Amino acid sequence: MSIKADTHDSNTYYVPHSSPWPIIGSVALFTTVGGAAMWLNHAHAGPWVMTVGFLILATAVSAWRHHRHQPRILWPTIAAFLLVGFEGWLGGRVVAHELAAWIVTAHLIVAIVIVQLLLYVTVEATRPAGGGLLQTEGRLAMLLIVFTLVQAGVGTQVRGHLETALDAGVARDVALSTVGTLDYLHRDLAFGVLFGAALFTLWLLSRRSPLVQWSLVVLTLAVLQIALGIVMAYGSLIPAAQVGHLTIASLLLGAETVLWLSSWRQSV
Questions:
Q1: 243: buried, middle or exposed (CB in 10 Å: 19+, 13-18, 0-12)?
Q2: In the chain, where are the structural domains located?
Q3: How far is CA 76 from CA 130, 136, 199, in A?
Q4: pLDDT tens per residue, range 12-58
Q5: 132-268, which class in CATH?
C-alpha cells in the first residue's frame, strides 16, 4: 500500500489580518487598571477614570460585535477609545504644568472631541437606512459648533488668567478686571453663539424643520451660559456659578453636535 507524499508547501504559513482590537483592549485595560490604582492611592479622579475605562471598553466591544463592518461606527469608536488614554496622559501634564492656560485648553478640547465622537457613534448606530445629509442644515450646525469651540477655547484662557490672578493674591471681586481683552473677546463670542443659534432656530421654524426641537435646546443653553457668565462677572466669581458655566458650555456643545448629527437622519 503506497502512501501519498504530502504536497503541502512547508514554506506557506497563515498570517492573520491586521486588527486594531488588541491595542484597543490594551488601552481600555490600562485606563481601567490605572483608575483602580489611582483609587487605591486615594486619588479623587480614580473611580471616574476606572469607570471611563469600563464604559469605553464596553462601547468598543459592542462596536466590534455589531458594527465591525460599518467603518463609520467602528473607527470613531476606536478614535474615542485611544483619545481616552491620551486624555489621561494630558491630565497629568496639566498638573505638571501647574494649570497653564494653554494645556488646560488642550485638555478641554480633547475631552469635548471624545464626547462628540461618542455622540456621533450613538446617532449613527440608530440612523435609519436611506438617510442622508441635509446640506444647508448640516453646514450651519457645523459652523455653530466651530464657533462655540473657539469661544470655549478663549474661555479656558480667561480661566487660566483668573487662576494666575487669584494665586497672586488678587481679590475675587476684581480678578476678572485683570484679564483684559480676552475677557471681552469671550463675551463677544458668547453673544455671537447666541445670535447664531437664534437665527438658525428662526430659519428652521420658517421651514418647519423637525430639527427645530434641538435648535431650541441649543438656544436655551446659549442663554443659560450667558446668564451664568453674568452671575460670575458680577458675583465675585461664585464657585458654583463657575461649575455651572462650564457644565452648560459642555452641554451646549453636545446639543449642537446632536443637532448636526440629526441632519444626517433626514431623507434627502
A1: exposed
A2: 19-126, 132-268
A3: 21, 24, 31
A4: 544 445 555 555 555 565 666 666 655 655 556 667 666 766 776 67
A5: mainly alpha
